[in-house]
Amino acid sequence: MLAAQLAQLRADFESLLRVVDAPQLPAPYGRLLSGHFKRAVSPLLHDLAALEAQVAGGNVAEAWAALAALEPRAQALFEEALEFLGGVALRELPPAQALADHAQRFIEGLIQEAGVPWSPVVILGRRTADDLPEALAVEEGPDDVLVRLPLPRWDVWYLPLLAHAYGFWIAKRGRSAALEAFVAAREAALAARLDLGAGACDPAEAALWLPEVSSLALARPEAGDRGARDDRERLLQRQRLHLWHWIADALGAALVGPAYAEALLFLELNPTRPTLEGATATAYGRSRYLPADARRMMLVVHVLEILDAEEGHGLYQPELRRIAAIWEGALDLLGTRADYERLKTALRPWCEALFAAVDTDFGVAAAESLRKWQHAQATLGPVLREGSAPSAPPDVAALISAAWSSRARHPAADRIATLTQACEQLLRGAAPGGGLLASPPTVSPPLALLYNWLADLETDLARLTALFRPAAAPFSANSYRDAVAGRFFRLLSAQDYGLRKEQGFLRRGMAVETLLVQVAERRESEALGEVQIEVLDYLGGALIRQRELEGAVCALADALLRDFARLTGVNWAARVVPGRHPLFSPATDMVQWHFPDAEIWNLPLMAHEFGHVAALNTPAFLEFLARQALTLAEGHPEAESWSREQRESYVSQRSAHLHEFFADAFALYCQGPAFAFDMTLLHLNPAEAFLPRGRHPTHAERFEVLLTVLERMNSAAQADVYAAGPYAPVMARLKDLWTRAVAACGVQPDAVATFHRLQARRLARELYEGLEQSYRLGAQFPPEAWQQAYEAAPALLGGTLEGRDKGPRELLTCAWACRVRFPDRTADIARWVRQVWRPEEPVS
Amino acid sequence: MTGYSEFRADLAGGLRGVTAAFDMLRGSLGTDDARYASEQLAQAAERYEHQVAGSRRAAFDEALVKGEAALPERERLAAEILAGAVADMEVAAALFVAGGAVGETPEAATPEELEAVSRDLQQVTQAVAWAEPAAPDTLRRFGLDEVPAPVKGAAVPDAPTAKAAFEKQLEAVFKALQEETKKVLTAALTGVDDLDDKLLGEAIGMIGKQAGALPGLGKLVSKGLALAVKAMDALTELLGKDLVLELQKKAEELLKTLKEGGTLVDQFLAYSLGVAPSTQAIRELLAQTTADGAAIDSGMQKLLALQTHFSEQAAMMGRIVKALNTGKKFVGKLLPEATAVLLFGTFYLVAMDFTLLNAMDHADTTTLIVFVPGVVQISRAALA
Lengths: 844, 384
What we know:
The complex is a heterodimer of chains A (about 850) and B (about 375).
Chain A: H1 2-20, H2 27-56, H3 60-90, H4 94-114, E1 121-125, H5 134-137, E2 146-150, H6 162-172, H7 177-196, H8 203-206, H9 211-219, H10 226-256, H11 258-268, H12 293-312, H13 317-334, H14 337-386, H15 396-409, H16 413-427, H17 445-466, H18 478-507, H19 512-523, H20 526-546, H21 553-568, E3 575-579, E4 583-585, E5 590-594, H22 605-616, H23 619-629, H24 644-671, H25 673-682, H26 699-717, H27 728-745, H28 751-775, H29 785-791, H30 793-798, H31 808-821, H32 826-836
Chain B: H1 4-28, H2 34-66, H3 71-101, H4 111-129, H5 159-192, H6 197-206, H7 219-239, H8 244-260, H9 263-272, H10 275-288, H11 293-331, H12 337-363, H13 375-383
């Protein structure tokens, strides 16, 4: 079992690398994705190899535990890859494609000014917390050239913030001696404090530290404390990353000008939690490396102030006054200004020192940005205000400067929309359709921020919704889009409903501070983030499927599901796309195939997923479920001490388990032993046999259900009481595999696990009766088929077995029976299946 | 490791969300938007609970790990946990009143009550968010008190004057300990005064135990009760889970004394806080000490700080009791009598226990909890 699961994981890693290396991916991405994921897979492959060595050394129990720890890390990587591919798919949308090109040009402009060569690649994706471990994040890697444009911000507004990525790269790669010296000095001071520990802490240095770094520095751990030593290294690296981000802001402001501060203020910062940073920030979906919003804003304003004083003669003053009024006004309203002012005082000397370092290496570029800003205001400001034709096609950077300046003055939603449209037209080489015309409305500065947030949220929702309208989703077939559109419309409607309420509250004069907090929550809400993840997953999955990057295994899964639909009479037009987990979603009519699995061996799991559909169409099961809900808690060893809520929660969880039991029983009943072997060999973990898994039953219970149903199937097919029955060898083999593996891991059930195992056995017997009642004629697996396939295994490997006349279910049976008999020939067996299985396209 | 600033940020962030959602509900009462606003308030309370839960757990874990840690560290952790309990109760009170406003309770909330809750929430949020700046190495405190710091005395150069000032401050500390404790206890007593005696006896037995199942209630009220239970659990855990029997005994004794009223309460407090013997012993120390004026003055300043600290904490307990009164008013009638008495009775009794033991800790007359160096320890150190 362990060897099979390790092989499966290795195959998944190889498949992932094949996908990201595939020539079918658009040009700039293949190289980037390949580099990124090769780097990310390396430590996992290393751990996998160590695990394989452990198995060879006979440390089975430890190896199972290590595998359980490795799997979530692998899963996180697979999910990241899926999101990346979603971003690649998005780039094929015309507006996103155009924006990515503008982004590339904008960055090239920055590179030209700063004079530090860089070859970045712009990718569309979700705004994510950078959560690479410190040791990896400080190293050079392919991520360093990655520039993320957040979904669905395909307009000019986000572009200034791309300078942050460039600034971060300069700081990280040490391309500025002055900045490198600044970081080195700070790091030396911190290291000295951590190593020597004695004496009073320098408050000036401490003002730069992340909270957890401060805690460690003030705790003065013992030199021999190993945990503290590890912490020391990790936190030194984290603090370095934190400083690089801060430097990136300084560079961003210096190279882009006020547009950087404006984009930061309106798109990124949250005045309701201005001092949130470090480890605590991760709970809010933010990177633990990023400086607090208050730190970022004060530095950016400081850099612009000094630049203006030295070179601009007050040129930036109106912009800076406006920015300060909005930010500080919001902080005042929210009662967070004191924190900002305190930090400002503490950090002023550092802002000055940092500016001096920036000025040393990038002073000329910064002065040039000031002149360009002035020129942009003079040439493009009137164009945007009046809607006139420009004298020459605008430069992206100049347009951004002029557009942000206008946007900050005209915060109303309709003006922002007009500006966005005007920018798009100008970038296409056309004249803007109309100007801002009227003079700017008079609104309080914090209200201007609120208007901007609401306008952006409205635009985001409109763009996400448009992705699922008939004219969109260019690369995926209509049937896929139609299948998921309803679910996305529902998710987006919930966001839209809330947004419209908040707009209504604003119109009716509700306090701005109340709405700032409420809308800030919405901007950063998990719900919106989850929609973005789902969109990217869907797009990534559809791209993989459309380009056949999953080895066409989804087409085989589709064929299998169509077969089940035909056999059971359950009318369901299934669609399979690669996704995070093998999953049936009643909300989308989609089944997910676990990405990046490209093998045939998990195809029997499709029977389990179809089982969930069948459950909803099986009246006998639904009645059974309702009946059982009344008695599920009876006899539970802890039931006596439960409160009513605990009992209700238990019954709800157990009802979910019942659905899983049904799906397992159904899959075994219809797909036969192939499903039982797939589950047992590739998915059950004996070291965690009794580990509760929330809405899913324990592995011990699932095995109990499999075995019980198999026993019943065997009894029903016995010729007489003296015959062993067709499934006797299968049962013996599975039982032996599982019980020996559990014993080797040394795990024991407690009273609750024993109760659940016995209950699962009883439930499985009743579920079997329900299956007999509903599916015996038609969908039931033919009892003789497994033994025949087992006997035909040598012919399969010898190339003499005819497979073209077999249906998908029979082919999988042949494959698994052969694998059970010849476990070392999995590649040959899979090749045979692919050769003989030619799924027909469904009639649409 | 928890830290003052992280915990404060979590509390302030969560409270801001609740305050905003509460105000949104207040502004939409009587309109079609009230249902949406009440859902937003329930969600904000859920987020608050989620945000604070992690750092609260971390504070308890840290307290467990530190064990016999240095006093300032324990004092910080106790202050964090107490501040969290106060914030929980303020949010709970807001949910009870909001429940009253949207028809979840038989008692309807008046506009004045809604306004008062909004004010209280804003006050607590600001108190948490606008804490005093402090140097990295110094201990920092929450500003959840409503008590202005006593005026600091002028520097006293000579020993006799310092001794006189010390003695005066000693009397002031004990007076504050007795009066503030009595104020909170009396306020809490009004909460249990009308409860059935027999059921109240059972409530004593519920101290330190898990609250039983609650009947199905409205979303806001249910969440409010869940937060109140959490706050009381935190107070009990802060006192010590292993002290349940002592806490029950203490509550019984306190209840009996408070119900008898009159001078008995003062006598009980004077006895519990060791006012006479401690004063006598410290006076003797004061008479015999050879410490110079500066050392005695420094001790006097510490007593002054102790008095302020206690007043802050008594004010926080006062807030908890006020929130309990709100809960009892809006939810009390919604629950079956026995459940209401067991639930709220236990809450009040835990608050009383905490108030008394905290005062005794400040007076150095208990070893059950030790969060601060109290009057006796400070005096001995200064006058040695």
